[in-house]
# Entry
Amino acid sequence: MTWNHNFCIALYVLFISLSACRPSEPVPKPKGYFKIDLPTHQYRQFDSAHYPFTFAYPVYGHITRDTNLLSDEGAAYWLNVDIPELNATIYLSYKAINQEYPLARLVDESYRLSYAHDVKADYIKTPQIVTDQGLIGVYYNVGGNAASSYQFFVTDTLQHFLRGALYFNVTPNMDSLKPAANFLKEDMEHLIHTLKFK
# Structure
C-alpha cells in the first residue's frame, strides 16, 4: 500500500510540475488585415480621337492625364487609370516607334524599369503576350514587396508601344495587398487584350 501511495504522490507531483511549465509571457496573435470588399469586374471603353489607342478599363476606374510628365517629349499620350476604391493607379505610357525611339530601345527601357524592382522582388516572371489583335509584348509579374507587382508592354512592332504599371499608393506589403493586386491584375489583362492601336 505504501508503494501504491508513493506512486500516486509521485504521479501527482509530476503532473503539477508539467502543468506549471507554461510561458509567463503571452504569445502574440498573428497580424490581421482589413477585409477588402472588391467590386464586380465591369468595363467601359476608352476611345478618344486625340489618342492613338483605345482599350477597355474598369468602370470603377477614372482616366486622368499624367500631368507630372507633360513636359517630357512624347508624354502627351500618357494616361493613368486611377482606382480610388483600392487606392491604386495603373500608369500607361505611350511612345511612337521612330528613329529616336526604336523598338529595341523601348523594350530595353521597359526591361530596365521593371527590373529596377529586383532589389525588393522575390522573383520576376516574364510571360510573353500575344493578343487577338496581333499585338505582342511581355507581362512582368513581380513577386514580393516590390513597389509595382504587375507591369507590361505591348507593341505592334512598327509604330506603337504602350507600357503599363500597377502601383498602390501605400507602402508595399504583398501579404495585405495580394487580394487587391490579383483583382487588378485581371483588369490589366483585360486592358491588354482589348487594346487597339489606331
Observations:
- The chain has one domain: 43-197.
- The helical segments are 2-19, 103-115, 174-194.
